[in-house]
């Protein structure tokens, strides 16, 4: 028996304002955004006003089709007065864009006030130079680069940049790396896994620190002067092979630190870590991750630790005894995963994860 209720046939989604349509479409790759033009006459022009462009050549069967789509979208179909808020270009190994073509694409994007830029060449076996126009993009707030070559450049001007992520970005020297960072005066978030091919002959210890840094994440092989980042509040350093941080500046603002060691390093130089702890007088949360799977130095134990292993250590560096709230050691090779709570000078409760008898040498290295 019919209930008498009619099934609504109106298209409520199409009746929404174009601004909402564009916002919804901005979460999709541009290739799929373009397919909405076939829905109806109402939808046909909408995709051309989406302020976020996301091009990924892996979504196309061949490079020429991808190139034509990028060119037609940017230079033919879209209104040239339409702003571009966010732009992503991901290229894989079969990409054949020439440098001049990339320069044209990014010049177009920069001229339209881009705020978020992601240039990802992780699928390409060789590095491509960053288009020159990007170095002076005054509207950028977020910049992510991957597999890019940074050689000679004169001036860097990112007055609005707050987030910078560099993955496999090649700099000519540490001086050029510092020069690039100095072009970001209000930078807050730095994530760097970069390489420099020539060591600097100029002194790098007395550089002025970036004043607005909040979070820094770097790989150990990244040749970044530590004096540049010493005002950060959060510091993560990955894949540490050896303790060669001297001279190290004071990190007065640092409250959170996470270090990732190879397990073999822990056995050789754990006392070296104790020596740098006074450089972090306000450290509150300290996490150490131990990576297994490397045998280099696996048969060694730090000679200093083997000599100084007090049965009941009670005197710790000041940052451990006065400020530290949490301390964790995580190691995937441990057969036992237990939680131990260790009081330092009776004033701090330290949470130690995946702690085992093997790490007694390491814990002793913190104490005098």
Overview of this structure, please?
The protein is built from nine helices and 15 strands. It has 368 residues and is of the alpha/beta class. The strands form two sheets. Strands 1, 2, 3, 4, 5, 6, 7, 8, 9, 10, 11, 12 and 13 form a 13-stranded parallel sheet that branches. A two-stranded antiparallel ribbon has the order 14-15. The chain is globular, with a radius of gyration of 26 Å.
Summing up helix and strand content along with how strands pair, one would put the structural category as: alpha/beta
Number of strands: 15
N-to-C terminal Cα separation, in Å?
A: 87 Å
The sequence of SSEs as H and E is HHEHEHEEEEEHEEEEHEHHEEEH
Uncertain stretches: 294-314, 334-365
Determine the strand fraction and express it as a percent band.
15-25%
From the alpha-carbon coordinates, what is the Rg to the nearest angstrom?
Answer: 26 Å
Number of helices: 9
For the largest beta-sheet, the strand count, sense and barrel status come to: 13 strands, parallel
- Quick one: overall form? globular
Instruction: Bin the helical content.
Output: 10-25%
Mean pLDDT: 75
Please outline what is shown here.
The chain is an alpha/beta fold and 368 residues long. The chain has helices at 18-25, 30-34, 63-77, 99-110, 174-182, 263-276, 303-307, 318-322, 360-364, and strands at residues 52-56, 86-90, 116-120, 128-129, 142-146, 148-150, 163-171, 189-196, 215-219, 234-240, 256-262, 285-291, 326-331, 339-344, 348-353.
């Amino acid at each position: 028996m019919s209930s008498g209720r009619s099934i609504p046939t109106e298209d409520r989604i199409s009746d929404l304002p174009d601004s909402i349509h564009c916002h919804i479409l901005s979460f999709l790759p541009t290739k799929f955004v373009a397919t909405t033009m076939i829905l109806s006459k109402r939808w046909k022009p909408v995709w051309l006003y989406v302020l976020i462009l996301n091009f990924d050549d892996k979504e196309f069967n061949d490079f020429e089709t991808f190139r034509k789509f990028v060119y037609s979208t940017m230079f033919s179909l879209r209104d040239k007065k339409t702003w571009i808020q966010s732009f992503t270009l991901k290229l894989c190994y079969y990409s054949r864009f020439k440098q001049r073509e990339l320069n044209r694409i990014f010049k177009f994007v920069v001229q339209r006030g881009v705020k978020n830029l992601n240039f990802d060449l992780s699928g390409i076996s060789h590095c491509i130079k960053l288009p020159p126009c990007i170095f002076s993009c005054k509207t950028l707030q977020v910049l992510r680069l991957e597999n890019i070559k940074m050689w000679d450049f004169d001036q860097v001007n990112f007055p609005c940049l707050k987030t910078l992520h560099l993955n496999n970005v090649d700099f000519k020297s540490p001086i050029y790396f510092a020069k690039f960072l100095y072009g970001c005066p209000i930078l807050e978030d730095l994530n760097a896994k970069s390489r420099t091919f020539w060591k600097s002959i100029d002194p790098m210890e007395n550089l002025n620190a970036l004043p607005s840094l909040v979070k820094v994440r770097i790989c150990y092989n990244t040749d970044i002067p530590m004096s540049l980042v010493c005002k950060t509040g959060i510091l993560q350093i990955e894949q540490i092979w050896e303790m060669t941080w001297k001279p190290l500046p004071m990190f007065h603002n640092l409250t959170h630190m996470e270090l990732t060691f190879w397990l073999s390093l822990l056995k050789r130089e754990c006392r070296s870590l104790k020596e740098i702890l006074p450089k972090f007088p306000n450290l509150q949360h300290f996490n150490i991750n131990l990576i297994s799977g490397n045998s280099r130095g696996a048969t060694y134990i730090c000679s200093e630790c083997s000599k100084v292993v007090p049965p009941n250590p009670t005197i710790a560096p000041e940052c451990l005894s006065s400020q530290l709230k949490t301390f964790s050691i995580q190691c995937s090779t441990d057969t036992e995963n237990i939680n131990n709570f260790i009081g330092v000078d009776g004033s701090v409760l330290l949470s130690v994860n995946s702690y085992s008898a093997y790490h007694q040498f390491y814990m002793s290295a913190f104490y005098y």
